[in-house]
Write a structure and sequence with these properties.
OB fold (Dihydrolipoamide Acetyltransferase, E2P); alpha+beta; 4-stranded antiparallel sheet; 4 domains; Dihydrolipoamide Transferase; 542 residues
């Protein structure tokens, strides 16, 4: 069944994307991770992938497409898509010869989660606008509501922040892009991409037709929302104690900034106990920093029981269950798919880093930004990939894509898991430029402020645990790459040279290879070139 590919939200200020180039045309077969188009936003030009397999049945002839507007439709060859285009209010598809769509094919009702319900009449869009969950990263399937910053009944402007959404890679702000009154917000914690987040429109507009037509991922009806909305009289009856306790909540959701939430989690603070001093009672950084826990009752039954058990030497079994974050959920899914679909094999090589240590010391006397050993590995890897392009490739299902550009991903550990910022065109950049960019991207990753363009597009990945005193390890390939390099620590080690035992600073590198793309001899040749660059860093400067 046909799937609509919508214009994703690619920056926090984006309202529409301009098609810079189409990489696929109607009739082409596409894979889920193919690049179908390049889209120019207000901040960058980015690649758009369909995330589904099939035949390209339709591409928009518009140059500028609004966020969540139809870019393309992918489905089975010959499938009739006229119903989808009609329901979305789009122009009719191009002539059959151009679109390669068989009008004789039997019509199929759209089954995509993002498509409107065919049975419901299309509501008046001049009265209200449905705010859908935007695609905020290349691997995102759903967004988790970190906090709602607006309530039902609030007036909003097009550039107001409606909610903070946690994806698998970052926490980002979502704006409505229309002015009006918030008529509805989903009560679901996690909402699929293109699912209904909210409805904004003219006060008093009946929202049920919009929920019926676009589906109701939030699971709420207009009546339920009306029941949930507290009346002024009911609010007046709340006791002072209740008002104080709930001053930073909205319908059970705690209003808190992403940074404050992270700080509370790191410090083990229950955010329900924190009084917010921000706008509308929102918990901010200073509230967490100044939080003093309330004194606990010393005479509680559980405390007394624990004290007796400890005094008598009785130990009780216990455990803690932690809900999966969006990041951890996607890490598990993607690396599981990589490990069990790509046949991994591993090659390890030892590198003498003595000259690299001396060279780094001298370079840091001149460089504005401190060059790390990881920066040296990134630069050396990029230059080695130029000589071994087969390693800079991807498995595409029925063909192998050899990338002519070199984008090095560098894995960064964050509390929620792992994220891979990407240094684009690393082979063309100086070591000091790589050092500066790497430092900035790492800081953004830890602050959860990376934008999609900064963590997508990798063609090769480096994972370094040397700074954590790890001798060597094997890493799981980071799709769509064919290889990942695992970097261990630099360790003074006795080695034999000219029949004599000498001490050299040795670093072990392990290359994980997808055997569908890279054979053993190809991977070994790449490692030998990489080793040569690191053992004599001056060769990277000429």
């Amino acid at each position: 069944m046909a799937e609509i590919v919508r214009m994703p939200l690619l920056s926090d200020t984006m309202k529409e994307g301009v098609i810079a180039a189409w990489h696929k045309k109607v009739g082409d077969k596409v894979q889920s991770d193919d690049v179908i188009a390049e889209v120019e936003t207000d901040k960058a030009t980015m690649e758009v992938m369909p995330y589904v397999d099939g035949v390209l049945l339709y591409v928009s002839d518009k140059k500028g497409i609004p966020v969540n507007g139809i870019m393309a439709i992918i489905g089975k060859e010959g499938e009739d898509i006229s119903a989808l285009l009609k329901e979305e209010g789009n122009a009719a598809p191009a002539p059959a010869a151009e679109q390669k769509t068989a009008t004789e094919a039997p019509k199929e009702a759209p089954a995509a989660a993002s498509a409107p319900k065919a049975s419901a009449a299309k509501p008046d869009e001049s009265l209200a606008t449905v705010i859908q969950m935007p695609l905020l990263s290349d691997t995102m399937k759903e967004g988790k509501i970190a906090s709602w910053l607006k309530n039902v009944g609030d007036k909003v402007a097009s550039d107001d922040v409606l909610a903070e959404v946690e994806t698998d890679k970052a926490t980002m702000e979502v704006m409505p892009y229309v002015d009006g009154t918030v008529l509805y917000i989903s009560d679901k914690n996690a909402i699929p991409v293109n699912g209904i987040m909210a409805i904004v429109g003219k006060e008093g507009t009946d929202i049920q037709p919009y929920l019926d037509y676009y589906g109701n991922p939030g699971g709420m009806t207009a009546d339920a929302e009306a029941t949930k909305t507290e009346t002024p009289a009911a609010k007046a009856e709340a006791t002072p104690a209740q008002e104080t306790e709930n001053n930073n909540t909205d319908g059970g959701r705690v209003k808190i900034s992403p940074l404050a939430r992270k700080m509370a989690k790191d410090k083990g603070i229950n955010i329900n106990e924190v009084k917010g001093t921000g706008d509308g009672g929102r918990i901010v950084k200073s509230d967490i920093e100044n939080f003093v826990p309330a004194a606990k009752s010393a005479g509680s039954a559980s405390t007394a029981k624990a004290a007796v058990s400890a005094a008598n030497g009785v130990w009780q079994e216990s455990h803690t269950d932690t809900d999966l974050s969006q990041m951890r959920r996607v890490i598990a899914q993607r690396l599981g798919e990589s490990k069990f679909s790509a046949p991994h094999f591993y090659l390890t090589i030892s590198v003498k880093m003595d000259k690299a240590i001396d060279a780094r010391t001298e370079m840091n006397k001149l460089s504005e930004f401190k060059i790390s050993f990881n920066d040296l590995v990134i630069k050396a890897s990029a230059m080695a990939l130029q000589k071994h392009p087969a390693v800079n490739s991807s498995w595409m299902g029925d063909f192998i894509r050899e990338n002519h550009h070199i984008h090095i991903g560098s894995a960064v550990a964050v509390p929620e898991g792992l994220i891979v910022p990407v240094i684009k065109f690393a082979n063309h950049k100086t070591l000091s430029a790589i050092a500066a960019e790497s430092k900035e991207l790492t800081k953004k990753a830890k602050d959860k402020k990376l934008q999609p363009v900064e963590f997508t597009g990798n063609t090769f990945t480096v994972s370094n645990l040397g700074m954590m005193d790890i001798d060597e390890f094997t890493a799981i390939i980071n799709p769509p790459d064919a290889c990942i390099l695992a970097v261990g620590k630099i360790e003074p080690t006795p080695v034999v040279e000219n029949n004599e035992i000498v001490i050299r600073n040795i670093m072990k590198l392990t290359l994980s290879c997808d055997h569908r793309v890279v054979d053993g001899a190809v991977g070994a040749a790449f490692l030998q070139t990489l080793k040569a660059y690191l053992e004599n860093p001056v060769t990277m400067l000429v």
